[in-house]
Write a structure and sequence with these properties.
Chain A is an all-beta fold. In chain A, 0% of the residues lie in helices and 51% in strands. Helix content of chain B is 0%, strand content 50%. Chain B has strands at 3-6, 11-14, 19-21, 23-26, 32-38, 44-50, 56-59, 62-65, 75-77, 86-93, 101-102, 106-111. Chain B is globular and about 40 Å long. Classes of the chains: A mainly beta, B mainly beta.
């Protein structure tokens, strides 16, 4: 079955540590996204990528980094510069040429600080 | 800039009650509009969409009509079920853009 897989489901970060969240899709989608969800805040865009080896900052990119070395994969690194990393992180993908079409979302990763 | 405003939650309804979740947007022009639903512990799923004024999106008994006069896209369902309990997000997207702008979400709880 096609879909988006995020891992791990739960992740804990220590002070000063970088952690990486995985996102893999087998939908042959060109575009991939990372959103952060906080209670009462809705979803805010962190980074997005339209094609391999290219990505753009979203609204809240500070303290995060991404890579897009393969079409199927778009990992997100939460660096030690992100002072408030506790949140639910959602990865999504879509066809590049169909901007009126839907985003497909993964099931999310809950990141907490120890 | 563009923004999406949803009614504050949480909303608690009895089974078979009528549901309305208000959504209005601020934008110069006519973006595509979406409703997404998030069940507990999961990602978001597209519920319905409308791409131009006066379009009505519908799915699973939910409906929403794109009203350009009032810049609104209110979500309605005639008879809710316990299984409809979730968080509902209104969102907009411009043709040619890859970004969705989301509202803050409205939590719905349906009690038997």
């Amino acid at each position: 079955d096609g879909g988006i897989t995020q891992s791990p489901k739960y992740l804990f970060r220590k002070e000063g540590q970088n952690v990486t969240l995985s996102c893999e899709q087998n939908l042959n989608h060109d575009a991939m996204y990372w959103y952060r969800q906080d209670p009462g805040q809705g979803l805010r865009l962190i980074y997005y990528s339209q094609i391999v080896n290219d990505f753009q900052k979203g609204d809240i990119a500070e303290g995060y980094s991404v890579s897009r070395e393969k079409k199927e994969s778009f990992p997100l690194t939460v660096t030690s510069a992100q002072k408030n990393p506790t949140a639910f992180y959602l990865c999504a993908s879509s066809y590049r040429g169909e901007t009126n079409e839907k985003l497909f979302f993964g099931s999310g990763t809950q990141l907490s600080v120890l | 800039g563009d923004s999406v405003t949803q009614m504050e939650g949480p909303v608690t309804l009895s089974e078979e009650a009528f549901l309305t979740i208000n959504c209005t947007y601020t934008a110069t022009g006519y973006p595509s509009l979406f409703w997404y639903v998030q069940y507990p512990g999961e990602g978001l799923q597209l519920l319905l969409k409308a791409t131009k004024a006066d379009d009505k999106g519908s799915n699973k008994g939910f409906e929403a009509t794109y009203r350009k006069e009032t810049t609104s896209f209110h979500l309605e369902k005639g008879s809710v079920q316990v299984s409809d309990s979730a968080v509902y997000f209104c969102a907009l997207r411009w043709a040619g853009s890859y970004q969705l702008t989301f509202g803050k979400g409205t939590k719905l709880s349906v009690i038997p």
